[in-house]
Specification:
328 residues, alpha/beta, Rossmann fold, Arc Repressor Mutant, subunit A, 2 domains, 7-stranded mixed beta sheet, two-stranded parallel ribbon, 14 helices, globular
């Protein structure tokens, strides 16, 4: 297999190396993306660039190693905070990284964490009011430091669009496969899982991949609206609200939003709301009408129609196929 090393990468994944982080996860993620690139090459797809970032003596976080150094500086599509072997980094230890992660997120990077790496992401303040997971062993410490985060330690991976958190110390495999699915597609993800002898059963839902919004387009005003929509769950919003958040006239906003994201604002909002509905169908037993309401749809019939259009299954069929409680 060819790794596609001579091809221009389609996206970059950055791995943050900080004191005490688990080197096994760092190397494991590196190997996982290398394997994914090998399989992507078979489909003629561009590879994923992998970079490593570390804080210097002056506190500045810089790129120290890179699979494609000839490609120059770029905003990573995803930045990963790996797990830590002992206790989580304390407030003083997270401070040098929190501002940097916040700035990268504002520039369009998706932030991801494994296990205790969630403490670095939470230190940015971006998880306030949003769902996240970490290792069950750190639950009490996490809740004490970040009481406004909707922590769910029963979930192995929580993909909330622009932030992805993974629980256990070896959940870097699950996280890595989720990122491969986003950047290289479900076929490459499944090939990578099989090559690594990781049972892909239970990951078949990736063929109905979570909505992966375009965030590295460079339009700061539109990115601000995307982050605003993600935090609100795209519920009870309209184009006028979005344009106001972007400080634009509506016609200008509509043109720039579509140019940046590839979707009309209401289509984009529908994808976000359906993503929330998928999560509720997978992990709760709420009636479908209640799922519709919780996802921002007052008309359950309209919800069913939109859900089928985006996912390719009815809400009921989706729950039968992918619901955790159903499978149990």
């Amino acid at each position: 297999m060819g790794s596609g090393r001579d091809q221009t990468p389609r996206a970059e994944v950055g791995i943050l190396i900080y004191p005490g982080c688990q080197q096994g996860a760092v190397f494991g993620l590196s190997d996982l993306f290398w394997i994914a690139n090998e399989h992507a090459a078979r489909y003629g797809a561009e590879p994923v660039r992998v970079s490593f970032w570390e804080a210097q003596g002056d506190g500045q976080v810089v790129r120290t190693r890179d699979s494609h150094p000839e490609c120059g500086d770029a905003v990573p599509a995803v930045l990963i905070a790996p797990p830590r072997l002992d206790h989580p980094a304390d407030a003083e230890q997270t401070a040098p990284y929190a501002r940097w992660l916040l700035d990268r997120h504002a520039a369009g990077s998706v932030l991801a964490s494994v296990c205790a790496g969630a403490f670095l992401v939470a230190a940015t303040g971006l998880l306030a009011g949003r769902p996240a997971t970490t290792h069950w062993y750190f639950e009490e410490a996490f809740r004490a430091r970040f009481p406004d985060v909707k922590l769910d330690i029963n979930r192995l991976v929580i993909d909330d669009g622009d932030i992805i958190t993974a629980g256990g110390i070896t959940a870097w495999m699950e996280l890595g496969l989720r990122i491969v699915d986003r950047l290289l597609g479900p076929s490459v993800m499944m090939e990578t899982a099989r090559f690594m002898l990781v049972d892909p059963a239970g990951r078949e839902q990736q063929h109905y991949s979570s909505f992966s919004p375009r965030l590295t387009h460079g339009d700061e005003a539109i990115l601000r609206v995307q982050h605003w929509l993600q935090a609100k769950g795209a519920v009870h919003v309209n184009v006028r609200d979005m344009a106001a958040e972007a400080h634009m006239e509506e016609r200008t906003f509509l043109r720039r939003f579509r140019a940046a994201t590839g979707l009309k604002p209401l289509e984009y909002s529908q994808h976000l709301r359906v993503g929330k509905a998928r999560e509720l169908l997978e992990f709760t037993v709420r009636p479908i009408d209640q799922v519709a309401w919780s996802s921002g749809y007052e008309d359950a019939a309209a919800f069913r129609k939109i859900f089928h259009k985006i996912v390719g299954l009815t809400p009921g069929d989706y729950r039968k196929r992918f619901g955790v409680r159903t499978a149990a």
